[in-house]
Design a protein that fits this description.
438 residues; alpha/beta; Enolase-like, domain 1; TIM Barrel; 2 domains; nine-stranded mixed sheet; three-stranded antiparallel sheet; 16 helices; 16 strands
Length: 438
């Protein structure tokens, strides 16, 4: 078969939905007329529809023209999970381009600044701060040199007098969380995700009416103190999932935590509220970070210009893909801001992030959210390994993934979803007038 770059065309787009890695992940295969298959992924807990609807818009296109395809479809992306389809296709195009030219993606991005990628792993723990500290210490014993944990109102839900909220609100929230987060993702009845609980869960921070009391602030400060007692003061640690609390409570909590020299406080406020971020930054010495729900580099600019951030934290499967995340990192460098990468998906997204991290000078650490999932790294061949808390940057073409472990994909396929890699011909011929101007 000819290997003429001008004749390379996209011929098909298919999906496999798996659960437990750690959430539902939609894997993507992008097929070509020359036998090269590119791997991509839709953002965790998103919908394959965001990618499937783009199929008719890319069939017949040359995947080597990655930026051209991205500019054609990027209007169909949006904040957070809504960007998943655009990013999945962008990743797969880069994988195809690297395989076609016989070079790793990091080389196509301009070369690499490092041979290994530092990782941190989000850590879950039951119990108090000492228990969390011991769990984090186990991460350190495995070689991880950077840590992150949750610290917020989830820890206070069952502590009497720690939270103030409209009566009944917190009970409703807990019921919704049990439905959504403790049920296999392929088994949730959408009807259980609607109604009052759904509306409350999707209310912005400053409208929830939730406040942390002095007792709650004492609890969280002591929790952080106990964690530091276990792990020491030298290792960097970031915190996440404060909860949907207003600016004033974020300030109160941040001030309590200043003495524990956090690496950053993550997503304290909705990312769109630049003025609030400026106020929070002015009120505390705790470094601030956000970005996992921001789509496209231009939406990072107001926060960077505000001077409020110490860290940008994009997710490749929301930010716009590989090249857009590289551009975000370079722009952050101009403002003296460090880049860390959010990643709670499969090894496909992880390897894409590895290439961006290698090619971005101001990068610090990459999230691993599946360290406790024993089969996670084996989803790809060669298997992805993070022994010692670092991932080696591959020299193999494309993303460095030679094949997917189809047996594991079948084993962990989501219930009530199409079988892995089923035909998607129903999306082949959809047409719409996509022009955004008259």
């Amino acid at each position: 078969m000819s290997q003429n770059p001008a004749e390379l065309k996209i011929t098909d787009l298919r999906f496999a939905d798996i659960d437990g890695a750690p959430k539902r992940c939609t894997l993507v295969k992008l097929y070509t007329n020359q036998g090269i298959v590119g791997y991509g992924e839709v953002r965790d807990a998103s919908s394959r529809t965001y990618a499937a609807m783009l199929k008719s818009r890319i069939l017949g296109a040359n995947p080597l023209n990655v930026d051209k395809i991205f500019r054609r479809i990027k209007q169909f992306g949006g904040d957070s999970r809504q960007a998943g389809g655009v990013c999945a296709i962008e990743l797969a195009c880069w994988d195809i381009a690297g395989k076609f030219w016989g070079v790793p993606v990091w080389q196509l991005l301009g070369g690499k600044f490092r041979d290994t990628i530092r990782c941190y792993c989000d850590t879950d723990s039951e119990g108090g701060g000492r228990d969390m500290g011991k769990a984090l210490k186990e991460r350190m014993d495995r070689g991880f040199t950077f840590l992150k944990m949750d610290l917020g109102i989830e820890l206070l839900m069952d502590v009497p007098g720690a939270l103030s909220a409209p009566l009944g609100f917190l009970d409703t929230m807990k019921r919704y969380r049990r439905t959504v987060f403790q049920t296999p993702h392929g088994s949730i009845d959408p009807r259980a995700m609607r109604g009052e609980a759904y509306d409350l869960f999707n209310t912005e921070h400053f409208f929830t009416g939730i406040h942390i009391t002095e007792k709650g602030l004492d609890f969280l400060e002591n929790y952080m103190k106990d964690v530091r007692a276990e792990i020491g003061d030298e290792v960097p640690i970031a915190i996440d999932h404060l909860g949907h609390i207003p600016l004033e409570d974020c300030i109160a909590l941040a001030r309590r935590l200043e003495k524990y020299h956090l690496a950053w406080m993550e997503d304290a406020l909705p990312w769109q509220k630049t003025e609030m971020w400026k106020q929070l930054h002015a009120a505390t010495t705790v470094p601030l970070g956000t970005g996992e729900d921001i789509y496209l580099k231009e939406n990072f600019r107001p926060l960077l210009e505000s001077g409020a951030l110490a860290v940008v934290h994009p997710d490749l499967l929301t930010a716009g893909g590989i090249l857009e995340t590289k551009k975000i990192g370079d722009m952050a460098e101009d403002y003296g801001v460090q880049m860390n990468i959010h990643m709670a998906e499969s090894p496909i997204a992880c390897m894409a992030a590895v290439h961006v991290a290698a090619a971005t000078r101001n990068f610090m650490s990459l999230e691993l959210h599946s360290v406790d999932v024993p089969w996670w790294g084996d989803l790809v061949a060669p298997a992805l390994r993070y022994d010692g808390g670092f991932i080696a940057v591959p020299d193999a073409p494309g993303l460095g993934i030679e094949a997917l472990n189809e047996d594991l994909i079948k084993e962990h396929a989501c219930a009530d979803f199409p079988a892995p890699w089923s035909p998607t011909t129903e999306w082949d011929k959809e047409w719409a007038n996509d022009r955004r101007w008259s």
